[in-house]
Amino acid sequence: MGMVFLALAGAILGFALGIKFGGEYKIQKALMLAPLTAVILPLVILILSEIIQAVAFLRLFEATVAMASAAILVSWSEKYG
Question: 30 lies in which domain range?
Answer without folding.
Answer: 2-80
